[in-house]
Amino acid sequence: MVNVYRFKAGDINHCAAPSDAVIATFGNIANFKTIFGGGVIFGPSSSPEFLGVWGSRNASRLHRLLKEALGPVEIMNSEPPARKTFASINGSRLTRAERDAMMKRIRTQSAFTEAKRLSSGYVDEH
User: Fold this and answer.
1) DSSP state at residue 91
2) How confident is the prediction along the chain (126 residues), in pLDDT tens digits per residue?
3) Sign of the alpha-carbon torsion through 45, 4, 87, 43
4) Which of 56, 74, 89, 118 has a CB 3.0–4.6 Å from the CB of 38, allowing a cystine?
5) How many CB atoms lie within 10 A of CB 118?
6) pLDDT value, residue 115
7) Burial class (CB within 10 angstroms; exposed 0-12, middle 13-18, buried 19+) of 32
8) Residue 100: its pLDDT value, please?
9) Count of C-beta atoms within a 10 Å radius of residue 17
10) Where are the alpha helices (DSSP H) in the chain?
11) CA-based angle 73:107:80, to the nearest 5?
12) Distance of CA 81 to CAs 4, 9, 18, 39, 50, Å?
């Protein structure tokens, strides 16, 4: 089960999750930032421990997409256990149709990658 951190900084809602869960859901950090128009990094920029978003709608969207991709999540009403080190805005926001199309593409690629991994006989023992 993935821990999803929901918290307020000032008057602004935030949501963050372990970076491996976010990358498993969105394919990579660039896709994640494109979907949300930016993001927040917790931990070193070179290997972030947690990735997050700000704003009520973005926080709810991240929570929902993680839950859809990874199954049940546990809500932690606190900041993630790593220091916020970077926040970025990419200057543009996708429309709902663009976001949905991108998520569909990401899910298709993820399913293809998983099927390829399974057909190669690779078994993850963790």
Assistant:
1) S
2) 899 999 998 999 999 999 999 999 999 999 999 999 899 999 988 889 999 999 999 999 999 999 988 999 999 999 998 888 877 777 677 888 988 898 888 888 775 565 555 555 555 444
3) negative
4) 89
5) 10
6) 53
7) buried
8) 87
9) 26
10) 19-26, 29-36, 56-70, 96-119
11) 30
12) 11, 15, 10, 17, 9
Q: Is the Cβ–Cβ distance between 92 and 34 less than 8 Å?
A: no
CA separation for the pair 25, 65 (Å, rounded): 7
What tokens appear for 47 in the block? Answer: 């290997």
**Residue 57 tokens, joined:** 């709608």
Q: What share of the chain is helix, strand, coil (3-state, %, to 5)?
A: 45, 30, 30
CB distance 34 to 51 below 8 Å: no
Query: Would you say how long the chain is, in residues?
Result: 126
Beta bridge partners of 74: 3
Evaluate the CA torsion angle 66, 49, 46, 10 in order and state its sign: positive
